[in-house]
Write a structure and sequence with these properties.
Radius of gyration: 24 Å
Strand content: 5-15%
Structural class: alpha/beta
Strand order of the largest sheet: 3-2-1-4-5-6-7
CATH class of the largest domain: Alpha Beta
CATH superfamily of the largest domain: Glycogen Phosphorylase B
Distance between the termini: 56 Å
CATH topology of the largest domain: Rossmann fold
Number of helices: 19
Helix content: 40-55%
Shape: globular
Number of domains: 3
Largest sheet: 7 strands, parallel
């Protein structure tokens, strides 16, 4: 056993993680054992995911502080990271890159941002990608890695984990590890680095900037939603809970971001400063299909991620009533990874988003970026707050059948609507443009 351990350590020292993995892998590996954490860490190093490798090693050493293999892996991670950092500095010197873009004031230190801890429609990753292009060091941590398989720098699955003193103590330790390495902490969907928000006072006491971004069901209050939208539904009907959460968060966080005026209505009474910044996507990853000619048999697609909120029942009823008189295909997209779902959307002639919320979300943005016409419910309130050239086909539970029927009778107009959708997204939801706006907000917060 000792010989095996020494051999693993020697492979790690030599940077041969494939060989180390061969010795570490065990069919009977227990999940809460030093070998388990060491195996996961080596896998991540082997796959080029250094930050996640660090997190696995840190978690292992937190439970098994004297384990020699985990200690050696952590040392190797720090060694690799140091070499990479020196290489980046050398590359910048050789390229003559003396830009101060992405710097605070006159400091030469780059802004370092951590985004967490729930990935919503790939928005943390997209923002970090946009920020990285501007010379910002932006990393993401995701506690809720669902089936969509969005990419994150750090992943720690806490799905189903209850908020207990033990887990929150461990997460506060992690927070203290992160504090010296990041200047600004940008949280999403009402989450932070602990499950009870006990980390929030630590940022202020450490002189760190902090920002909360809300995305929808975390703040949508039914009584207010119905004032704006007659078809409004919400996932969480417990208004007291939502308001209590917002009150607690805003005690420690002064700045909040939302992506449109609908969400602004729910948070404006809580946060001192509310900033509206549209959602964003990497346009290069969502290219329109080369052919603008509709399928001979039109394909209509709907993704019922939240069937009640999306109005899936009304959509299915409409499809059922139309299929005897019109020749078309219909597909529900569910349980697939994001990449798998995108392939189906690329083949669609028409995409149906939702019939209740009253504003469009990331699904509609992605569809428009691919040049696909989108059916979605837009309330009168939001019509007044969107650009006049919004190219969405508007429908609600009462009109969805007639709207689908209209598109089937006028299939030739769909490609033109798709082209307008792409142009709309380029103008309003470009990752590069919108991450620059977010960076401007970061800089203003860091200079206070």
């Amino acid at each position: 056993m000792k010989d095996n351990e020494n051999q693993i350590i020697n492979y790690i020292k030599a940077g041969n993680f494939q060989k180390a993995l061969e010795l570490l892998n065990d069919k009977n590996l227990q999940t809460n054992s030093p070998r388990y954490y060491a195996t996961r860490s080596c896998e991540n190093i082997h796959n080029g995911k250094l930050q996640n490798a660090w997190l696995w090693s840190w978690r292992g050493l937190n439970n098994f502080p004297k384990d020699s293999i985990l200690t050696r892996i952590m040392e190797k991670i720090c060694e690799i990271d140091s070499v990479r950092e020196k290489s980046k500095q050398t590359d910048n010197l050789n390229s003559g890159d003396n830009e101060t873009h992405g710097e605070v004031g006159n400091s030469n230190a780059k802004i370092r941002v951590l985004l967490g801890s729930m990935e919503i429609a790939n928005q943390m990753h997209t923002l970090s990608e946009g920020l990285n292009r501007q010379g910002i060091i932006a990393h993401t941590i995701n506690y809720y890695p669902y089936y969509l398989n969005y990419d994150s720098n750090y992943t720690w699955s806490l799905i189903g984990q209850r908020s207990t003193p033990l887990i929150n103590e461990e997460l506060r330790k992690l927070t203290n590890e992160f504090l010296p390495h990041y200047d600004l902490f940008h949280f999403h969907f009402g989450t932070s680095l602990t499950l009870d928000w006990s980390d929030l006072p630590l940022y202020k006491s450490s002189g760190k900037a902090i920002l909360m971004q809300h995305w929808g069901s975390d703040v949508r209050i039914l009584s207010k939603a119905t004032e704006l939208n007659p078809y409004a539904l919400v996932k969480n009907k417990n208004e007291y809970q939502i308001k209590t959460n917002l009150s607690k968060l805003s005690e420690n966080i002064q700045n909040c971001v939302v992506f449109d005026m609908e969400l602004y209505q729910y948070v404006k009474e809580f946060y001192k400063n509310v900033h509206i910044l549209p959602s964003m996507i990497n346009l290069n990853k969502y290219q329109p299909t080369k052919s603008s000619i509709p399928n001979k048999k039109p394909l209509i697609v709907h993704a019922p991620t939240s069937p009640a909120i999306k109005g899936t029942k009304y959509i299915l009823e409409a499809i059922e009533s139309l299929k005897d008189n019109y020749d078309f295909d219909f597909r529900l997209v569910k349980g697939l990874s994001h990449e798998e779902a995108i392939k189906i959307y690329q083949a669609a002639d028409l995409i149906i988003d939702q019939l209740h919320i009253g504003s469009y979300g990331l699904f509609a943005v992605e569809a428009m970026a691919m040049g696909k016409p989108v059916i979605c419910w837009i309330s009168d309130f939001m019509k007044d707050h969107y650009p006049n050239n919004l190219p969405i086909i508007i429908a609600n539970p009462e009109t969805i059948k007639d709207t689908i029927e209209f598109t089937l009778r006028n299939i030739d107009i769909l490609p033109e609507i798709g082209v307008k959708g792409r142009l709309y997204v380029e103008m309003n939801h470009d990752m590069v443009k919108n991450s620059q706006k977010m960076l401007s907000l970061y800089i203003s917060l860091l200079q206070k």
